[in-house]
Design a protein that fits this description.
CATH topology: Oxidized Rhodanese, domain 1
Structural class: alpha/beta
InterPro entries: Rhodanese-like_dom, Rhodanese-like_dom_sf
Number of helices: 4
Protein name: Rhodanese domain-containing protein
Strand order of the largest sheet: 1-5-4-2-3
Organism: Gordonia araii NBRC 100433
CATH architecture: 3-Layer(aba) Sandwich
Number of domains: 1
């Protein structure tokens, strides 16, 4: 998965060019939330995305995930038909500190 900066992710999301997808487990999200992000538990990825019309497979998706889970999340999103995926470099902390 390619990487984009936190600033790029936020700018794209604010312009409506991308969706920020926060796939961190709830136990980790106590650190805070990403404004405007679609929040999905890693284990509920398939069902929640199919039920959420704002996250289309043809959309640019900036993914915020734990490093240990990022490759698996990318693989699952790819199997769901998502092709325009980017990992937010530095994850939630980079977005928070931006």
């Amino acid at each position: 998965m390619r990487e984009i900066s936190a600033a790029q992710a936020m700018e794209q999301a604010q312009r409506g060019d991308a969706v920020i997808l926060d796939v961190r487990p709830q136990v980790v999200r106590h650190q805070g939330s990403v404004p405007g992000a679609v929040v999905v538990e890693p284990g509920e990825l398939t069902g929640k995305l199919r039920a959420n019309p704002s996250v289309r497979p043809d959309a640019e998706v900036a993914v915020v995930a734990l490093n240990a889970q990022a490759d698996e999340i990318e693989s699952r999103l790819s199997r769901l038909g998502f092709t325009k995926l980017a990992r937010v470099a530095g994850g939630f902390r980079a977005l928070r500190d931006r």
